[in-house]
Amino acid sequence: MPGADPKILLDSFIKDNEQLRDASTLYDFGGVISVGAPINEFVKDNCMVIGTAAKQVDPIHGGGIAIAMETGVLAASIAIDAHKRKDYSKASLLPYEVKWKDTLGKKMNKRLMLRKVMEKLSDDDFDHIFNSINDSDLSQIMAGNFAPSMAKVIGTRPQLLGVLSALAPGSKR
Ligand SMILES: Cc1cc2nc3c(=O)[nH]c(=O)nc-3n(C[C@H](O)[C@H](O)[C@H](O)COP(=O)(O)OP(=O)(O)OC[C@H]3O[C@@H](n4cnc5c(N)ncnc54)[C@H](O)[C@@H]3O)c2cc1C
C-alpha cells in the first residue's frame, strides 16, 4: 500500500531515541487483523461467533482483547439462559447479537466512521487537528462524541467541513 511504512518508522524511531540505543529485538511476529466492520450475523442454531472470528475488532487500532472479553461475558450470560431452557436455537441465542449490536456495536460503528474520515486526512490536517484539540476533546472523541472537537477544528480550518461532516450527529455518510 502507498504511504508511510510503519516498520521503517519504528526502526528509525528506535535508532534516533537515545534511551533505546542499547535495546534489542527479542522476538519478531505478526498476524492478520480484519479492521473492517463485524460480520452481519453472530448466531446460528447451536452456534455463537465471538471475538476476532466475528471481526469484533477496534477498526482504528486493531485491538480486540478487551472487546473479545466483554463480548465473551455477554455471550456466556445468554448461553447460560439458553442452557436453562435446553434451547440452543438461533432464536434462543439471538439476544447476544441484539444486545451486542445495541451496545459495543454502536461504539464500534462510530469508530469505524472515524477511521474512514481519518483515512481522508493529510498529515498536515492531522497536525492541525492535534494542535487544535486538547486531552479532554480527545477523550470525547474516543467516546464517540465528535461535535465539540469538530467545531474547534472547522472553526480554524473550514475546508475540512466536507470531510468531517460525516461525523456530525445524524449524518448518513
Ligand atoms: C500481532 C498481533 C498483535 C495484536 N496486538 C493486540 C494488542 O496489543 N491489543 C489488543 O487488544 N489486541 C491485539 N491483537 C488482537 C488480539 O490478539 C485479538 O483481538 C484477540 O486475541 C481476539 O481473541 P479471540 O478469543 O477472539 O481470538 P484468538 O485469541 O485468536 O483465539 C482463537 C483461538 O481459537 C483457536 N482455534 C482456531 N481454529 C480452531 C479450531 N478449528 N479448533 C479449535 N481451536 C481453534 C486458535 O488457535 C486460538 O487459540 C493483536 C493481534 C495480532 C495478530
Unreliable stretches? none
What portion of the residues fall into strands of 2 or more residues?
under 5%
On the 0-100 scale, what is the average pLDDT? 90
Shape: globular
Number of strands: 2
- Going by helix content, strand content and strand pairing, the class is mainly alpha
Q: What order do the helices and strands follow?
A: HEEHHHHHHH
| Helix share bin | 40-55%
**For the report, how would you describe the main beta sheet?**
2 strands, antiparallel
Bound compounds, please?
Answer: flavin-adenine dinucleotide
The span between the termini is: 25 Å
Annotation field: number of helices: 8
The radius of gyration over CA amounts to 20 Å
Strand order of the largest sheet: 1-2
Describe this structure in words.
Helix 2 (65-85) runs antiparallel to helix 3. With 173 residues, this protein is mainly α. It starts with 5 loop residues before the first helix and ends in a 9-residue tail after the last helix. The longest helix has 21 residues, at 65-85. The mean pLDDT is 90. The protein has a two-stranded antiparallel sheet. The chain is globular, with a radius of gyration of 20 Å. Helices cover 53% and strands 2% of the residues. Among the domains are: 43-109, no CATH class; 120-167, no CATH class. The chain has helices at 6-16, 65-85, 90-102, 104-118, 123-132, 135-142, 147-156, 161-164; strands spanning 43-44, 47-48. It is built from eight helices and two strands. 16% of the residues are buried. Bound molecules: flavin-adenine dinucleotide. The site of flavin-adenine dinucleotide has 13 residues, from helix 2.
